[in-house]
């Protein structure tokens, strides 16, 4: 079953290549969605895929070099909408 995760990261997550690294990590997983900077210095990611694949993807982000920049991560889960075709960076 396809699921959707809306994840917000806080910490020193802007200006360090966070979005670009997340996109690179996403290429190794069967996920679609986007990552973008928020005006309040957080980063938001909306991602869809099989639940186990999403959990593996989120774990890979937390285990990557990005972990040093993440102070807090909040994830909200729901059903996938099917609106995405790939994983991209939004401005």
Topology (elements, then pairings):
Blueprint: E1 2-11, H1 18-26, E2 32-37, E3 43-50, H2 51-63, E4 70-79, E5 87-90
Describe the protein in words.
A 5-stranded mixed beta sheet has the order 4-1-3-2-5. It has helices spanning 18-26, 51-63; strands at residues 2-11, 32-37, 43-50, 70-79, 87-90. Strand 2 and strand 3 form a beta hairpin. The protein has one domain: Alpha-Beta Plaits. It has 2 helices and 5 strands. The termini are far apart. With 91 residues, it is α+β, with helices and mostly antiparallel strands. The relative contact order is 0.34.
From the alpha carbons, calculate the radius of gyration and give it in angstroms.
12 Å
Report strand %: 35-45%
Residue-averaged pLDDT? 97
Count of the separate structural domains: 1
Total E-strand runs: 5
Low-confidence stretches: none
Known CATH architecture: 2-Layer Sandwich
CATH class: Alpha Beta
H/E element sequence = EHEEHEE
**CA(first)-CA(last) distance:** 29 Å
Q: Examine the coordinates and then state which fold CATH places here, giving the name of the CATH topology.
A: Alpha-Beta Plaits
């Amino acid at each position: 079953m396809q699921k959707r995760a809306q994840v917000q990261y806080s910490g020193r997550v802007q200006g360090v290549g966070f979005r670009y690294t997340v996109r690179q990590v996403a290429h190794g997983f069967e996920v679609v969605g986007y990552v973008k900077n928020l005006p309040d210095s957080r980063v938001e990611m909306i991602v869809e895929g099989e639940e186990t694949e999403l959990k593996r993807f989120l774990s890979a982000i937390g285990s990557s070099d990005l972990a040093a920049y993440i102070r807090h991560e909040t994830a909200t889960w729901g059903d996938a909408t099917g609106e995405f075709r790939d994983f991209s960076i939004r401005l």
